Amino acid sequence: MNVSALKVGGFMELNEKIRSADSDVHITDCCGQRFMGTALAKGKKLTITGTPGNAAGAYLNGGVIEVIGNVQDAVGDTMNLGKIIVHGNAGDALGYAMRGGNIFIRGNAGYRAGVHMKAYKDLKPVIVIGGSAGSFLGEYLAGGLLVVLGIGAEETLPVGNFIGTGMHGGEIFIRTKKKIADLPAQVAVNAATQDDLARIKPHIMEFAELFEVELESLLEDNYYILTPNTQNPYHLMYVAN
Amino acid sequence: MNFIYPENEIVRNEKRCNLCRVCDTQCSYGAHEFDEQSGQLNSDDRKCVNCQRCVVLCKQMALKIVPSGNKYKENYNWREQTIKEIFRQADSGGVLLSGMGNPGDFKVYFDKIVLNASQVTNPSIDPLREPMETRVSLGALPRDIERDGKGQLVNNLPPRINLSMPVMFAAMSYGSISLNAHKSLAAAAQEMGVLYNTGEGGLHGDMYSYGGNTVVQVASGRFGVHPDYLRSGVAIEIKMGQGAKPGIGGHLPGTKIVGDISLTRMISEGSDAISPAPHHDIYSIEDLRQLIYSLKEATGYTKPIIVKVAAVNNIAAIASGIARSGADIIALDGFRGGTGAAPTRIRDNVGIPVELALASIDRILRDEGIRNNVSIIVGGSIRSSSDVVKAVALGADSVYIGTAALIAMGCHLCRSCYTGKCNWGIATQIPELTKRLKPSVAQKRLVNLLTGWKHEIEEMMGGMGINSIESLKGNRLMLRGVGLSERELEVLGIKHAGE
Ligand code: SF4
Ligand code: SF4
Q1: Of the residues B94, B109, B127, which one is the last residue of a structural domain?
Q2: Shortest CA gap B145–chain A (Å)
Q3: How far is the CA of A221 from the CAs of A108, A126, A128, B36, B423, in angstroms?
Q4: Average pLDDT in the A137-166 region?
């Protein structure tokens, strides 16, 4: 089903169309309408041309959303399952508290990407950001994989400040030659080993295939891996009173 | 130097004791110990938390717990508790942690407010012979009446929740309390036609059948939040804050994330469950609106959204923002509200009395003409039916009770929930302890409490000549303050007694 966002009232009507459609939906001329594909269930694909507004794919539950364009803030909030593919950049708070599924961003992501992602049983959320990511990446990370490829940002550090504050699970991979400094004491940084890279390889391959970028150099380059520092856990001493 | 003499003493009447040993087998803290050699029961006052379990269970009435009587040379400024707190921190370097709500001697305004009754000029109503309406319906009301082309009324009422009386069970997560406690609350809510609240720990598989009486909570950690969970209850509550610890997040250590707790929170076993202090996607009313509408979208606009906030400075202005954000209900939580564990300093010093917060929110929403945008639920130490009546007269549509519900189930307010060893089977996950709480028994006790309160509410309303709770809502003429300053009366919007 093809729907031009220009011909439908507001986001409520547009989302109602997506909810009630029994086939895949293609929204064209999307211009800031929020909550596109909220809680979209397995078996449905939503393609969007244009720029969906905030909170696209929130609580996504198995569906697939592909955006030909940029996305705004809070994409994939509390996502449970499914896939979000963005052929552009993403705003702030990408994949907040997501528990499962995959998000692929071709370009850059704003502040607070992957905050409080967590893993559960066989659910393991993955975010791959092609370009660079803003500050506060992966704060409170509790599980899952965050990958920043830094394509086009080879000369600078592709991440901002305060990465992984409060991180207590999961892994952050950053492709860069620059040194990653000023991390909180609770976060350990190491050069990724071949074993480490094996864990992200399938996701990088999928990224390369989705956006038709050259794979070899992405796989061969230098990655850092950030994990919770087991030597220095997040811990506050309490005394019963 | 780090010895602090126990606050309480276990007194065993040897003449009455028949050495049945109930006390020593029941105490999870090991305060009673049987000495095989001497055949004697000893007790260790240091381990006693004064939960009264042994006292209640001792058939011989041989036990009592009394203040030990040891006293520091305290004065008004340097009280015993203050001195002890310094000792504890000097020993450990730790952050003080306490259970339950603010115990400070701040004024309890409910206790300084009295109710009206009819005399001569209007008749009181006898609830035994006249119908009394205690049912309430919570949610937003539409601004305009809509008619279709044929002039017929269009039902444009947003989704609402209906209660048989203005009392609901407050958010207490599975994890902070036991599954049996959750089942008792849910079953009692179902029997009474009211609601219970999942708290932020997700929903156990056994509990979905109580969906019609469930409020599901969404907090900053988003634990257990997924589309089926959101659709399972009759309302969704966004937890922005909690009265006992405003501005503070939560941290359930990985050691407690085992078995079913890990399943309902939907995180791996052994992983810490950290609820960040803020929602990192909410920095403004606009952001809140976004979360509200994403939840409405996820549930097809079938559930009212509650936004729970703690009573703090400027709460009226904040509530006004919430009332414009698309929320259907505001839940206001006061600083006497219970909690399993809160940093002592936060518990005792942050937040404002809930009665003042409630009155100012009700007033500002009326002044701004948006009172019907939202309903108000107030919680944070509603202890009795008269607190309910006063809260409603100050502008609440309903109340939340947490601590009172726990007490009905057997809690004796020992304030040791954070030990996870609750002898009453409530704030614990230890199977030998949780099985002490029989859902059928606790359900009955909760139902009894609400039934008693309902009668009392009807009686108080009848006395005022009011036969419907709706006519009591925000009806401050029914209230008078005793011993309150002009400023306090002004904030509460009530007159002084005698006026
Ligand atoms: S429960 Fe009472 S009677 Fe039984 S051993 Fe303890 S003190 Fe004695
Ligand atoms: S729930 Fe249990 S541990 Fe907590 S205060 Fe009540 S009796 Fe004590």
Answers
A1: B94
A2: 21
A3: 19, 20, 16, 70, 58
A4: 93
**What is the rounded distance in angstroms from the CA atom of residue B374 to the CA atom of residue B318?**
13
Judge: domain A89-228, CATH 2.160.20.60: yes
Q: Do the Cβ atoms of B333 and B237 come closer than 8 Å? A: no
User: Residue B45 gets which letter from DSSP?
Assistant: G
Which residue of A61, A140, A166 is in closest CB contact with B227? Answer: A61
Per the CB < 8 Å rule, is A239 touching B95?
Answer: yes
Residue B196 to residue B379: CA distance in whole angstroms = 13
In this prediction the pTM is 0.93
Domain CATH number, residue B449:
3.20.20.70
Residue ending a domain, among B66, B94, B122, is B94
Domain span holding position B261:
136-496
Tell me how many domains chain B contains: 2
Task: Identify all chain B residues contacting A52, using CB atoms and an 8 Å cutoff.
Answer: none
User: Does a structural domain hold residue B130?
Assistant: no
Confidence class of residue A96 from pLDDT cuts 50, 70 and 90? very high
What is the share, in percent, of chain A residues with pLDDT greater than 70? 98
Q: In this structure, how many other beta carbons lie within 10 angstroms of the beta carbon of residue B358?
A: 28
d(CA B491, CA B479): 13
Q: Which chain A residues have a beta carbon less than 8 Å from that of B272? A: 142, 168-169, 234
* pLDDT tens per residue across span A31-62: 999 999 999 999 999 999 999 999 999 999 99
Residues B281 and B367 placed together within one structural domain of the fold: yes
Considering CB atoms only, which of A15, A35, A142 is closest to B271? A142
pLDDT in tens, B364-385: 999 999 999 999 999 998 999 9
At B194, the amino acid letter reads: V
Let me know whether B145 and B88 are in one domain: no
What amino acid occupies position A79? M
Query: How does pLDDT run across B430-475, given as a tens digit for each residue?
Result: 999 999 999 999 999 999 999 999 999 999 999 999 999 999 999 9
Is B60 within a domain? yes
B169: which 2 tokens?
């069970």
Residue B109 resides in a domain: no
Residue A178 clears pLDDT 80, i.e. is over it: yes
pLDDT number for residue A221: 86
B117 located within any domain: no
pLDDT digits (tens, 9 = 90+) for B59-109: 999 999 999 999 999 999 999 999 999 999 999 999 998 888 888 889 999
Q: Domain ranges in chain A?
A: 89-228
CATH number at residue B79: 3.30.70.20
Q: Are B167 and B453 in contact (CB under 8 A)?
A: yes
